[in-house]
Structure formats: structure tokens, C-alpha cells
């Protein structure tokens, strides 16, 4: 796990250092993350989480560019009341209702600058689960797969050194690691603020 996180950080830093100064910006960002996990045995309502991390933008042309990010994300889905009925042979009857999942997330987005203020972006997002706090299953088994691939799309409003953004991320991976009967897929709505250092 630590090796993968270090490798992702090294790739990000190398990409940042290899870009030319013109059209290149970087900074910090944070957002509120409304997280939903769809699937049998899980409460289908949105829950509030958060993300924080670093980003870089590089405009290849006046209109088009790329935006990689490296983020720490924490979300909290909830166990549904029928979880034990769905997973009779695996469930822990005394499991907590609240679940905490922590991810390292790497979106790589394509940017289109409508004008100097408004940008739309879209692209893939990969999340790696490095910590989970749940006791859903017996024998301390994990209920969640480590990797989650998603598709992200959103818009950004830039005000000099500050920008605000909204984004939707649709999970494409089944993150249910209990069995193959039911699929668990994520949805996320994010509203955040970024600070450009350069």
C-alpha cells in the first residue's frame, strides 16, 4: 500500500516538474463530498464526506488542457437494516451501522476553457482504499475491494488565485468484495474551493 501511494506521488511530482512554466499552475484544494453507495445491504442515501489534496493544471492550447490531482478522501456509507438478511453466511450480527472508508484518489481530467473564468472538465478517476473502519463480516474479513475506477465531470469558476468547482463522479467498478451476487457502485457530488499558488 505504502509503495503504491509513494509511486503515485512520485509520478505526480515528475509530471509537475516536467511541464514548462507557461500555462502551468498548481495549488491546494478541498471539497465537501456527498457520497452514495448503491447496492443490496447498504443504505442508499447520500452521506457527507470530504477530500483534500493537490492539483496541477497545464493548458496545451488556449482552450484545451489537462488537470491531474492527488487527493485524500474520506467517506461514510451506512449499513442497511437488511444487511444480515442479504449476507446470511458472512455477516456479523453486531456490526456497526456507520462505516468509514479512506481513499487515495487520482483524477486525470481533460480541461476545456470556455473563457478565462469558466472551465469544464471530464476524465477518469482512480481511488485506492487504504483504510476501512467496519465490522460488517465475521473473522475480520473486508467487505470492500481496494480499487474503484470512476468517471468524473464538472465545471470550475476561476477568480484570480481562487477557484470554486462542482463535480459529479460515477463509480464504474463493483466494490463489493463479499461475493458476486450483488454489485456496489458509488456516486459522488462534490463542491469545493481551490487556491492557486502559481
Tell me, rounded to a whole number, the average pLDDT: 90
Using only C-alpha atoms, the radius of gyration works out to 18 Å
The tally of structural domains comes to 1
SSE order, one letter for each helix or strand: HEEEHEEEEE
The CATH architecture classification is Beta Barrel
InterPro entries: Beta-barrel_OMP_2, OMP/PagP_B-barrel
Domain Outer membrane protein beta-barrel: 21-175
Signal peptide: 1-21
Keywords: Signal
Task: Provide structural commentary.
An 8-stranded antiparallel beta barrel has the order 1-2-3-4-5-6-7-8. The protein is mainly beta and 198 residues long. The protein has one domain (2-196): Beta Barrel (Porin). The radius of gyration is 18 Å and the shape is elongated. A hairpin with a 4-residue loop joins β4 and β5. Residues 16-20 have low confidence and may be disordered. The chain is built from 2 helices and 8 strands; from the N terminus they run αβββαβββββ.
